[in-house]
Amino acid sequence: MNGRRQSGNIDDRRRSGFGRKAGIGGGIIGIIIVAAVTLFSGGGIGDVLSNITGSGALQPQYSQSAYEPTAEDEQLAVFASQVLAGTEDVWTREFRRQGWGEYEAPRMVLFSGAVNSGCGQATSQTGPFYCSADQTVYIDLDFFKDMKHTIGADGDFAYAYVIAHEVGHHVQYLLGTLGDAHSRMSRLSETEANKISVRLELQADFYAGVWAALDNEMFNSIEEGDVENAINAASKIGDDYLQKKAYGREIPDAFNHGRSEQRVRWLTKGIQTGNPNYGDTFSHAYDRL
Q1: Which of 202, 224, 235 lies closest to 157, judged by CA?
Q2: How many CB atoms lie within 10 A of CB 242?
Q3: Phi–psi pair at 195, nearest 5 degrees
Q4: pTM of the predicted model as reported, rounded to 2 decimal places
Q5: How many C-beta neighbours within 10 Å does residue 165 have?
Q6: Dihedral, CA atoms, 279, 151, 130, 254, nearest 10 degrees?
Q7: Rounded-to-integer distance, Cα 164 and Cα 230, Å
Q8: In the chain, pLDDT over 90 holds for what percent of residues?
Q9: Number of neighbours of residue 186 by Cβ within 10 angstroms
């Protein structure tokens, strides 16, 4: 990413947040517990954000002093902005090439501690998320540090994968996939709605892989070890992996992002094909994803 342009769609709200103490409270494992229970009970992303924010078990650990970014924080902010710019370049070209119209880029909000979004209030423990209500990706950059220390996923390309995945949800929104899926989910049982959620998440993984392939085609951006880092990250954020860490067992009916092997498979397929038309996760039988 050295020398790459930065996006003009960044809204930096970090200085309006709070400094975070050592430790991450419930962290990503706590997120899975709350999200699984909420979605299994028929809730949507707004409910997940609300429950994570209000859960007594997940009280965020913040200091009262104003947030002051470190040199590492500033490097991560520049990197995130460059990755977002890369998604703008790739998807602008791809939308035109596919005849999908003009690509409308999302905004990205950088925050520290807590943030108000179009989908409700959230804390950094929510993790990165896309809100279709305001077409914005939200991220506390400390999440990247947590990836390394909590689940052992590290490296620039692993971080880029996280951002590209959330932008993948924006692509779904623009193509109407996200709205159609949410409409279907509202009419289904909790278990069946979760299966639709898995299909959405795996397609977002695929789109992240497509972005990586096309960004490399345009800018020669992938270096040795990058793909392995992204695949390692995908393997560490599967529902089965995280639930085993949280519960000691799997709860398949509460899966909402997919198994580790599924996430790796669809991310890899996106990287290998570089073609967004090969990412139909809705026509396959659920047990063949």
Answers
A1: 224
A2: 22
A3: -65, -35
A4: 0.84
A5: 27
A6: 70
A7: 11
A8: 58
A9: 11
